[in-house]
Write a structure and sequence with these properties.
alpha/beta, single chain, about 25% strand, four-stranded mixed β-sheet
Length: about 260
């Protein structure tokens, strides 16, 4: 059984991850972390987070305590929590899957420093479909001339804080790289925050007389949770420290 610790257990992704782990025959929840001061600390993760039954795992306010009992960590928290989570992973030599978005340059530098001594998977989006969308967007941007303008539209639930989304920014990076441009110069971005939209991304390439649209729409947050769990299991097999992403997890690195 693979022991998985979840950081950000009471968030949308945390709840999805814990529900999937609870239903799995190969995975076990080894720890569940919350921000200090959360009223749920001390309660059973299954009872408090809507799994439907007790899991025998108390909710904790220490990333270090979660890491000490885990084979691998999955972090879907807020940027402010990342330094503590990275420190917990480093001090316990626990590989970590990071899905937190909206990171600034300082946080990214800390992530890279941790990856020098520890295997890490970091991706803006853990959907297999989005990973393919990134590849297709790069192919389209490199194949079409500069006459094709590129616009990236993304839509998420009303509570999402960062805009554009991490996935939209990553799409901008890959099309910019394909055209040898700065990411901010290659694309126009539009963000929508409304209702309970799980996640939608569209890359439009438009020229006089035609346009191409590449789109991905997620209808369930479990899509991303399954991808993160796949990444966690893959990460445990990696012997070399470094920063990996979903292209590595899916075996797409260098393919095509």
């Amino acid at each position: 059984m693979t022991r998985i610790g979840i950081l950000g257990a009471n968030g949308r992704m945390g709840r999805s991850l814990i529900s999937l782990i609870a239903a799995s025959e190969d995975l076990v929840l080894s720890g569940a972390g919350l921000r200090p001061g959360n009223a749920l600390v001390g309660q059973d993760a299954g009872d408090a987070l809507g799994v439907g039954h007790s899991l025998g795992v108390p909710l904790q306010d220490s990333a270090q305590a979660v890491a000490e009992h885990s084979d691998v960590l999955i972090d879907f928290t807020l940027p402010a929590a990342l330094p503590e989570n990275l420190l917990a992973a480093e001090s316990t030599a626990t590989p970590i899957v990071i899905g937190t978005t909206g990171l600034n340059d300082q946080a990214l530098a800390a992530l890279e420093a941790t990856a020098m001594g520890l295997p890490i998977v970091f991706a803006a989006n853990y959907s297999s479909g989005v990973t393919l969308l990134l590849r297709l967007a790069a192919i389209a941007a490199s194949a079409l001339s500069a006459d094709y303008d590129i616009a990236i539209t993304e839509a998420h639930h009303r509570h999402k804080k960062d805009a554009p989304s991490g996935t939209a920014l990553r799409l901008g990076e890959v099309v910019a790289k394909a055209r040898d441009l700065d990411a901010l110069d290659a694309s126009a971005f539009q963000s929508i925050r409304a209702g309970d939209i799980v996640g939608e991304h569209t890359v439009m390439l438009a020229a006089d007389g035609e346009r191409i649209e590449l789109s991905h729409r997620a209808s369930s947050r479990d899509t991303f949770a399954r991808g993160a769990l796949r990444a966690a299991q893959w990460l445990l097999k990696q012997q070399t420290p470094g920063r990996y992403d979903m292209e590595d997890v899916l075996g797409l690195r260098g393919a095509g």
